Amino acid sequence: MSKQNTINKLAVFCASSDGNDQQIYNTAYTVGKRMAEEDIQLVYGGSKLGLMGQVARGVMDHGGNATGVIPDFLKTKEVVHNGLDELITTQDMHERKLTMNELSDAFITLPGGFGTFEELFEIVTWAQLGLHRKPIGLLNINGFYDDLIHMLNKMTSKGLLKQDNLDILLVSDDFDDLLKQMRNFEPKPVPKWMNKNQT
Question: Residues 53-56: contacts with CB within 8 Å, 24+ apart?
Answer without folding.
Answer: 53/16, 53/81, 54/25, 54/28, 54/29, 55/12, 55/14, 55/28, 55/29, 55/31, 55/110, 56/32, 56/81, 56/83, 56/84
